[in-house]
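Subject: Protein record for review, amino acid sequence with backbone structure tokens
Why sent: The fold of this protein is of interest and is recorded here as tokens.
Enclosed: The protein record, placed directly beneath this head.
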Amino acid sequence: MSVEFIEPSNSPENSPKNLSLESTLKDLALFNFQVDSSYLAKEVARFFQSHPLLPGVILTVNGEFLGMISRRRFMERMSRPYGVDIFACRPIIALYQIAQSDILILPGVALIVLAAQRSVHRPPEQLYEPIVVQLEPQVYRLLDVHQLWVALSQIHQQATWSMSELYYNLSLTQSELEAANSQLKAANSELYRLANLDGLTQIANRHCFNEYLQEKWLELGAAAAEISLILCDVDFFKKYNDTYGHQAGDACLQQVAQAILAAVNYSAGKVSGDTLVARYGGEEFAVILPRTSSEIAVWIAEQIRVCVKELEIEHLNSAVCSLVTLSLGVASTFPRSSAAQKNLIAAADRALYQAKNRGRDRVILDTDGF
């Protein structure tokens, strides 16, 4: 087992100094903890217990990089019923094959600000997974994602301080001040856009969806107005990826997202409020429809279903037809302080589940209420 790392500290005085917009991942404290895939899981567990800040372990086979398993996924598997009995005395690769997930691998020369952008666009369940940093061929290290956010905060703080110095520099002309202000506004606008946009589909992300639903829930609750939610899921998308590859899968999601957006915009005359189309997670999308009745929401959902099907994206392994299709669940309510937004989401998800059970490629309205 190879173990040689710098253990990052939570205290600011021990954090990397003089970070700037040009700083790279190599400038951060990186963990070097790797074991051969034949190493016993119980030994890895002991090392995690001895080093509470260690975010994960890199696995190798004959010195070659195999993958990474985070502390969180490792402990989650070991803490399940009989987890210790099943995995403790078995090679770590047995646990890895079950608990593995997509890994974000970035080069050591990657800028910290760009690495943060790539990290935040991961699926919600992977946001806190450590990042694998490749320093050179077959040389890998681990970066705790918390350290990435701390570094990004320092860079932002440094940039803000530099901008403040410019304002207080009497030698600056008015035009220079205006240019600096414009750059700051553009930077803040870009940071806001990156935080709320899904990198793949270029529509709103899950974070933006959560904030917008909260905002409209309070607004419509005070106005005693109705709100509707549509949840959409690409039918048999895993089979699509398996058949055509992940690059084709990404292109498919991009086309579906734009088709949903176009269908909602086309239906704008039926809706008396601002809508939001978001990527809810993976192959699932969501549409928030403020001041919209269930009847209109079902009509809009049907327009979305037809619009996606008319893309005529080939899907030969779909059990529905030979094209990419959507299943959609619709739910509506009048927001009340006694009911949480999660109940609306649960109702739409329940309707989506029924749509899948009834053959997919259809729209179902939740009628159970909540």
